[in-house]
């Protein structure tokens, strides 16, 4: 299996090369040359596998430069009941007939990012150990990626983490999860700006090839293909659970609704669908920062500046530049690297938007690829949290509430709907109290976390400042 850049860079690379690299040299994102396809007989065989062994079967289709026994061991080390609290790893929770939540937040940091990040940490340690090298990870987070990455990488041999986050824009619990870590290989940089400023800094550093090579910069953001690839697994796992016991289970279609800001989580669903998983619809649920919803409704992709990025009660989706969207548009436009380079490089830099409404390919976003979308705002969030609690006794976080609200608007008769849970409610306690008048349950290990000493450096939204910080802490 070889990988190519969405922007047409000529080199084709193997998995372990792109694992440590992040962005391609031309600023594009890596994708496999083609998606491996699975048939009904393969789906039938995979149905009875444990989550760890299912992960191995799927990942082995994309990874041929790690010996099979080693890759299987990495998967079994990663996906354990001890780490994720349940044998099923991602159990489905039935709310009503044909409507489910897929629990992705049972990992160490109580968010779905753990599903991929725990694997990534083990892959990094394995590959760096083989090479006898070190890696400096630069990341950007709007809330959950940062803590998931830091908990996955803390204490790992040969790895340092430099995580940028928007200063003051995460929930107190999210900040405490990250900033209370005292591990020497973990560095938190609170950027005076919004998430998109953090993301721009990460991309700028990644595009400075000399600096990137000198300081061995890698990334754990979802621009790293390995993270997205790991997320593909829980689409298969959710499908198998939703269709368990059905006579025509290998042919029955389901839909998934995914709360999405950066398009990584739902892009993994797109990959699963391209592999042959019977997905009817991929429903993109946004908050007030509705860049993605606007595109799927109109064909116009219009990024917003910092001043126009709303601060919301589902802050992990307060994103106005969806990095992974480039991967989908690459597929939508026939994998034309030159066109992608023009759209995401020159045109977005000059105008801040592009319009595909007149491109014949745009209609395929819905018809061929199954994408639809919807939007949820604060009032919807409160109402959905309250309704889900009162009717089903299930407490959901703000982002999952956005998903549930939009999912109900896209239900189809006879097609099960699975909403991907994104985090546990404790991470957004203030809004839960506003909706329900009560505090969400807090796992014992996180009691008093907000009162622990903080280890964080506040910096300007300036790539030079971040580069200087990295350089001074890599000596």
Q: What report would you give on this structure?
A:
The chain is of the alpha/beta class and 475 residues long. It has a domain at 92-109 and 225-436: Rossmann fold (3-Layer(aba) Sandwich), CATH 3.40.50. The chain has 20 helices and 15 strands. It has helices spanning 15-19, 40-46, 51-59, 68-78, 81-84, 113-131, 144-153, 172-179, 195-207, 209-214, 225-242, 264-275, 291-298, 325-332, 337-351, 364-367, 378-392, 398-409, 429-436, 463-472; strands spanning 3-5, 30-32, 92-96, 99-102, 135-140, 159-166, 186-191, 217-218, 254-259, 279-286, 300-302, 353-355, 371-375, 417-420, 457-459. The strands form 4 sheets. The chain has a 6-stranded mixed beta sheet with strand order 3-4-14-9-10-13, sandwiched between helices. The chain has a 5-stranded parallel beta sheet with strand order 8-5-6-7-15, with helices on both faces. Strand 5 (135-140), helix 7 and strand 6 (159-166) form a beta-alpha-beta unit. Helix 11 (225-242) crosses helix 12 (264-275). The protein is globular and about 60 Å long.
Major sheet strand order: 3-4-14-9-10-13
CATH classification class of the domain at 92-109 and 225-436: Alpha Beta
Our estimate of the beta-strand percent is 5-15%
Q: Radius of gyration from the CA trace?
A: 21 Å
What is the end-to-end distance?
Answer: 36 Å
| Overall shape | globular
Give the helix tally.
20
């Amino acid at each position: 299996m070889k990988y190519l850049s969405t922007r047409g860079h000529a080199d084709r690379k193997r998995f372990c090369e792109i694992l440590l690299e992040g962005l391609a040299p031309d600023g594009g994102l890596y994708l496999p040359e083609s998606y491996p396809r699975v048939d009904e007989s393969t789906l039938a065989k995979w149905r009875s596998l444990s989550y760890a062994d299912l992960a191995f079967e799927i990942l082995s289709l994309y990874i041929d430069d790690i010996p099979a026994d080693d890759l299987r061991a990495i998967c079994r080390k990663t996906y354990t009941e001890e780490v994720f609290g349940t044998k099923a790893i991602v159990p489905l929770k039935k709310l009503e007939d044909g409507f489910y939540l897929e629990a992705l937040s049972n990992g160490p940091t109580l968010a779905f990012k753990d599903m991929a990040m725990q694997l990534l940490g083990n892959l990094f340690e394995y590959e760096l150990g083989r090479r006898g090298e070190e890696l400096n990870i630069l990341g950007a987070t709007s809330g959950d990626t940062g803590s998931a990455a830091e908990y996955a990488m803390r204490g790992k041999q040969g790895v340092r983490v430099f995580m940028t986050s928007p200063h003051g824009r995460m929930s107190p619990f999210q900040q405490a999860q990250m900033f209370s870590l005292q591990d020497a290989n973990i560095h938190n940089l609170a950027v005076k700006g919004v998430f998109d400023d953090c993301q721009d800094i990460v991309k700028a550093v990644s595009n400075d090839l000399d600096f990137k090579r000198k300081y061995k910069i890698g990334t754990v953001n979802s621009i790293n293909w390995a993270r997205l690839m790991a997320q593909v697994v829980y689409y298969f796992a959710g499908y198998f659970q939703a269709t368990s016991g059905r006579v025509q289970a290998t042919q029955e279609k389901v839909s998934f609704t995914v709360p999405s800001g950066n398009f990584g989580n739902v892009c993994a669903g797109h990959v699963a669908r391209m592999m042959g998983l019977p997905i009817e619809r991929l429903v993109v649920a946004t908050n007030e920062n509705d860049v993605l919803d606007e595109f799927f409704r109109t064909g116009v992709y219009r990024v917003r500046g910092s001043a126009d990025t709303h601060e919301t009660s589902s802050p992990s989706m307060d994103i106005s530049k969806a990095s992974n969207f480039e991967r989908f548009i690459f597929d939508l436009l026939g994998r034309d690297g030159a066109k992608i380079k023009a759209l995401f490089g020159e045109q977005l830099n000059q105008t801040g938007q592009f319009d595909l409404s007149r491109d014949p390919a745009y209609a395929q976003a819905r018809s061929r690829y199954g994408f639809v979308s919807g939007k949820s705002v604060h009032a919807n969030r409160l109402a959905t949290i309250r309704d889900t609690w009162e009717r089903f006794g299930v407490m959901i976080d703000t982002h999952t509430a956005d998903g549930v609200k939009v999912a109900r608007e896209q239900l189809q008769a006879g097609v099960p709907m699975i909403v991907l849970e994104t985090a546990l409610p404790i991470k957004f306690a203030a809004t839960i109290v506003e909706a329900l008048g009560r505090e969400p349950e807090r796992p014992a290990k996180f009691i008093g976390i907000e009162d622990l000493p903080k280890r964080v450096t506040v910096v300007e939204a300036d790539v030079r400042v971040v580069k200087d910080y990295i350089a001074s802490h890599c000596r």
